[in-house]
Structures are given as structure tokens and as C-alpha cells.
Amino acid sequence: AEAPKDKGKSAHGEWWCDEHGVPEDECSMCDDKVYRVAKGKGELCPKHPDRAKSQCFICNPDLWEKSAARYKEKYGKEAPQPKDNMPGAKK
After folding, report:
1. Sequence-ordered list of residues with C-beta below 8 angstroms from that of 67, at least 6 positions apart, any chain
2. Which terminus of the chain has a smaller tally of CB atoms within 10 A, N or C?
């Protein structure tokens, strides 16, 4: 499996990772520590091993609805759709 491209804490600077659609401090695709914990627990997506199964909206679009609800609860508006974590974004 390939580690996150950003190799460490993402520099996005906000609570939310727009690129992947989850809170920054939980993003297994941006935060190497989160990725390593998921990998150690055997929780990486089998088809997209650069992300935790619980964050792979490509394989399980219903997870996006749950994540988007967290954003809406915090900000009172609809979450921006992730750029790199939705069906059709990655083969």
C-alpha cells in the first residue's frame, strides 16, 4: 500500500479536508499517522489502499452522506463534494 502523498499533517489549514471529504485530523489520505494506524489495524480499502475503508467514498458512497452530515452540523451548510474521493474519481 502507498502512504499518503502529503507525508504528514496536511497543510490545508481548516477543520475539513475539501479534497477528501473528512475532517483533516481524521484524513487517512493526508495524514501519515492516521494512515499508519488504519494500516496497522487492517482497515485500508482493498481496492484503494491509500485510504481507510471507512473513508473510501469511491467504494461506499453512503459513507459520504455520513461525513457530509458532520460538516453540515458544524457549519450549518452543505459540505463541498470531495475532489478526489468520489465514485469515478479514481479507478
Report:
1. 21, 22, 55, 57, 79
2. C
Contact 8, 31 (CB under 8 A): yes
The pLDDT tens digits for 32-77 are 999 999 999 999 999 999 999 999 999 999 999 999 999 999 999 9
Looking at the chain, list the stretches that DSSP marks H as alpha helix, in order from N- to C-terminal side.
Answer: 32-40, 62-75
Q: What are phi and psi of 44, to 5 degrees?
A: -85, 150
DSSP 47: S
What is the grid cell recorded at 22?
473528512
Phi, psi of 72 (to 5 degrees): -60, -40
Q: How far apart are CA 8 and CA 35, in angstroms?
A: 9
Set of cell numbers at residue 53: 475503508
